[in-house]
Amino acid sequence: MAIFNVLKDVEAWKQGLRTAVAGALSFLVAEYFALPQGYWSVITAIMINQESMGATLQAVRDRLIGTFAGAVIGFLLALVTPSGMWGSLLGLTISIGWLAVFAARYPSLRIAPMTAAITFIATPSHADVVVSAVHRVIEILLGCLIGVGVQGFIFPEKAETLLSGKVAQVLSLLAGFVIADSEKSAAQIDRNLHEAYGQMDKLAKQVQAEHFSTARGSGLDPNAVNHALRHLRIAAFVLRRVTDRLSTAEDATLSERALAVNRAIQTYLLELSSEVNGTGTGTQADPVPMDKAMSQLSAHAQARRQESATDKGGGMEIVSSYEDAYEQVQMALDELTSAIFGTKRT
After folding, report:
1. For residues 238 and 201, what is the distance between their CA atoms, to the nearest angstrom?
2. 137 and 239 both lie in a single domain
3. What predicted TM-score, i.e. pTM, was given to this entire model?
4. Cβ atoms 127, 119 nearer than 8 A
5. Taking a C-beta distance cutoff of 8 angstroms, is the pair 166, 200 a contact?
6. pLDDT higher than 50, residue 17
7. Total domains present in the chain
8. 10 Å Cβ neighbour count for 305?
9. Do 130 and 203 belong to one domain?
10. Whether residue 276 has pLDDT greater than 70
């Protein structure tokens, strides 16, 4: 059952522990300082606690932007609207409506209308709105600080580590794609790739948040990795299509040579995947077998061109297309290894 799968998930237990500790600490600190509505510290610490430091920092940014925007708008309207119930109603209506307009366009402002509403609703008099706004900011700041601290000390998880794992997964899927033995199998792998690329986009943004918070870069450039893997996916797709066309050529050796290249590419991608994921032997992925197999295909095609002036079955033309596709694979791998390791390896 699904519930038992969740209970066996170590990462889920880690996330549960981080969230519980963050909530408990926020409650204790809020009680110690006798904050009037300390539960906002607890709620904030729970809401911002995510699977990685990068995701947590993204949540903190959105929470703070929304809180400050809501508090400032509430404060300004409290200055210009009359005191009493009708004045509060007017300030409440204008503030949440105005902020909701911007929240519809900018997701980081989603909490702003709620913050503005709380500053009006949670105070007995119109004049207390300013004090209430200050309290909300303090309580939410406290929750953010505790949430980030807990994320950094209890099973800390960097988005960059998660992204490396996702890159390794994509490379493994691409390795399976280039040698898939049926269209059905290739289509399933392509669906898995689509899902993995979406997750990679999300992690890339989290990595950027981590880099920004530390004011320094890293050996892993998320944008460059993303671009290279998309380039590689397109090249692998073209390579597979051309391989299928070679299988119909009159010269069966051409098809066999192309399949040998594809298998060498598969091996290289799997080695690179292990290297990225830190599960390999510690040696660099070797592109030589891949290039050697390609040289053998090109040499055979060249010999056939010299033997015959005619190209029965269009095999030579298809080989040219295959060579172009292979060149694109090489370029994408150069991009990828440069983005991950800082050097080209192909």
Report:
1. 23
2. no
3. 0.76
4. no
5. yes
6. yes
7. 2
8. 13
9. no
10. yes
Residue 96 included in any domain:
yes
Tokens of 291: 């290039």
Please check whether residues 163 and 198 belong to one and the same domain. yes
Q: Count how many Cα atoms sit within 13 Å of the Cα of residue 154 in the half-sphere of its side chain.
A: 21
Q: What is the pLDDT of residue 29?
A: 92
Q: Which two tokens stand for residue 72?
A: 């400032």
Residue 261 maps to which CATH number?
Answer: 1.20.58
Residue 145, pLDDT above cutoff 90: yes
Residue 337 lies in a domain: yes
Q: Which domain holds residue 82?
A: 10-152
- For residues 22 and 4, give the distance between their C-alpha atoms in angstroms, rounded to a whole number: 25
The answer on 300 and 186 residing in a single domain is yes
247 within 8 A of 240, measured Cβ to Cβ: no
Compute the distance between CA of residue 260 and CA of residue 289 in angstroms, rounded to an integer. 10
pLDDT digits (tens, 9 = 90+) for 297-308: 888 777 776 666
Predicted pLDDT of residue 128: 64
SS3 per residue for 157-171? CCHHHHHHHHHHHHH
Share of the chain above pLDDT 90, in %: 21
